[in-house]
Amino acid sequence: MIKKLVKNAFLAILIVLLLAQFFGPQKNHGDLASVEAFFEDTNPPEDVKLILKDVCFDCHSDHTRYPWYNAITPVNYWLADHIRHGKRGLNVSKWNNYTKKKKDHKLEELVEEVQRRHMPLLSYTWTHSAATLTDAQVRAVTDWVQIARLKYVFVKEPQ
Hints:
Structural class: mainly alpha
Largest sheet: none
Order of helices and strands: HHHHHHH
Radius of gyration: 20 Å
Number of domains: 1
Number of helices: 7
Helix content: 55-70%
């Protein structure tokens, strides 16, 4: 009796998982050109631009390069949740919507997260090993941010 119950429960779970493959969250398929305003405003050097594109923009812009395993439910929901949280913290595609004070704060947070090695997330680097930042890359990003922030430190917002 218990064996049959376990078998039926396993079969039901399998059917639900198979049916779930036909559904998924909305994808983050914006245009990568949406980050150009961020690049123009903050003027990163080419090496930092590459780091940002390769390591940050999948979760912190309106354009995500999805891995093959995003086609598997429930993994696609897990990734969509990461992207939603990442964009809530910093969305460089919406850079022009931020006030100068908020831009400065976002850049300050970027430095803190990278220096503490909180970003990129460990769960991201597990599947994107090239996204693990070296000490030199962390220095390049933090040095660039310190210069970029000077633009916002002494500027007052219009009333």
